[in-house]
Amino acid sequence: MPPPAALGIWEVSENPVILTRRIAWPQLVAFSRALASLREPAMASSAVARVFAAAAATRRLLCSIPLPPTHRVIGLPAVRSEVELYLTAHPDHVAADVVRRLRYAADDLMASRSPVAAWAGEEVSRYGHDNELSRPEAVIIVPRREMLVPVRSWLAEQELHADVLTAAEARDCVPYRAALVAGHPGYTYASPWRDPQTALRNFGWLLTAPPAATVHIALPGDIPALDENAAWLLPGDEHPRPRSADPDPQPSARTWTAPLLTPPIVRPATGELGIDGTLSTPVNLAGPASVYYHPQLGPRPHTVLLDDETGALRITATAVQSLRAGTLLVLRVGLAEHTELVERADRWLAERRAWPASKIATARQLIATIKSRLAKARRERGSDAVQRELVLKWGVDDTYARALVTRPLDDYYICPQRRASYVALLRVLSLERHDDQFEVLAAVRAAHQQAGEEIRRELLACLEVDRAWVDQVDEHGWTQVTLNGHDHLLLAAIAAVGDTALPVPRTLLGVPLDKAGNRMRRLPEIGEAQ
């Protein structure tokens, strides 16, 4: 943040003026009540859920940007289209009458004028132009960057002068005289992946460290009352309270966020199940994919962590047991990730360790031999017998012996961490002639770690360059990002983590699966995946 901006925000944060206005909008209230009636049917029917999601997104935009209801960005025509598709396909469904009420309410909204736009026009007209900074004195805050151009165009049509910024852009700007915020920040920035309470804390700085000395807030219709105390990261009585007043609205449906349907568990396609399999945890993702993870085998899940307060971005490997609904995962689609890892590791060994190609090939062959011998021993003697020999004859700890019977079969596994365990495993597999190769395989393992870190840095740099993906994930729960011009990343929030392990081939661990259970080769556009 530039020093003038930091100083200005510190000054206006000392005593911000928050002016809240409750705006009547009967047509919006009727639309909200029709929408609330669809909540329970949406939990039980994916067809109704699509109608509900479209209507909920439209309602949020009606409340948070000063555009007329007929504007294409608002999405009311899309709601009517979803309603017509539903009623055509399910005219006698139990929820059909409620959906029809939503359509009538949408028609009434289309015919009405936006009091939010009228409020914005009235407030902006009170402010002029800051000659010292060569900019307007007022700024309108919009929730997503695709709203910037439509709102700026609307201002030009109305011959009004104000800047338009997203909340992220306003975070480090030099403060204005006035900022206009339409809607309750908790609900404007909420999604199925971020509840209103969390959203209000994340964006509470609009009230507690605002981008302007005066913040005008419009709460249209039956939006829940604004609790400024909840906007603080640590609510309490010690910090100053903004001077605002929000008359409580008439009783109405207060639950706004769209219901998050838990998608059915996708099992791997039957053609893949003949491959050596293992019981793994199913993870259902928002959008078009599912993925399976094993706590010891295959790639670990990589989560994307974005700090809304500082903007810091991290990608970190996470234990399978720590995965929760709402966690954002990054997965690669359309390329053999393990093959790329091996290629980078071999290049590192050649460049940094000056290994000749013959030495690298010999090490790779030994790794493959250990895997094939272990698989053969398990088939012929049984896993329990191999484990007992490791424990009784070679003194390996029982828990570690259980891992040694399984983990080396993983494509990503190189060799045990300790020499004693390495030697014991080779003796059980009658490969003792390779006892002296432990340091060689340890170097290969180090090369894989270096290659993995290199890939992680590239992924992080890709996500840092253009953060348009943040809005997509907030809105839809998933998005895709292109890496290096041709590789595709899937960013998807976890919808649910299965509580029952299911059999899955080792080759599909950590691999995005489509709705048919097949390895995902390409990502659909967001509209295709609905």
The count of helical stretches stands at 19
Distance between the termini: 39 Å
How many β-strand stretches?
15
Main β-sheet: number of strands, strand sense, barrel status? 6 strands, antiparallel
Name the poorly predicted regions: 1-7, 239-245, 249-260
Helix content: 40-55%
What portion of residues belong to β-strands?
15-25%
Global structural class = alpha/beta
Oligomer: single chain
- The gross shape turns out to be elongated
Mean pLDDT: 82
Q: What is the gyration radius calculated from CA atoms?
A: 28 Å
Folded structure, characterized:
With 530 residues, this protein is α/β, with parallel strands linked by helices. 42% of the residues lie in helices and 16% in strands. The chain has 19 helices and 15 strands. Strands 8, 9, 12, 13, 14 and 15 form a six-stranded antiparallel beta sheet that branches. Strand 10 and strand 11 form a beta hairpin. Helix 14 crosses helix 15.
Describe the secondary-structure layout:
Layout: H1 3-14, E1 17-23, H2 26-37, H3 39-44, H4 46-64, H5 76-89, H6 96-110, H7 115-124, E2 129-130, E3 135-136, E4 138-142, H8 148-157, E5 163-166, H9 167-170, E6 176-182, H10 185-188, H11 196-202, H12 205-208, E7 212-220, E8 277-285, E9 290-293, E10 302-306, E11 313-317, E12 328-333, H13 337-352, H14 357-381, H15 383-392, H16 398-404, H17 419-428, H18 438-465, H19 468-476, E13 478-483, E14 487-497, E15 502-505
Parallel strand pairs: 1-7, 4-5, 4-6, 6-7
Antiparallel strand pairs: 2-3, 8-9, 8-14, 8-15, 10-11, 12-14, 13-14
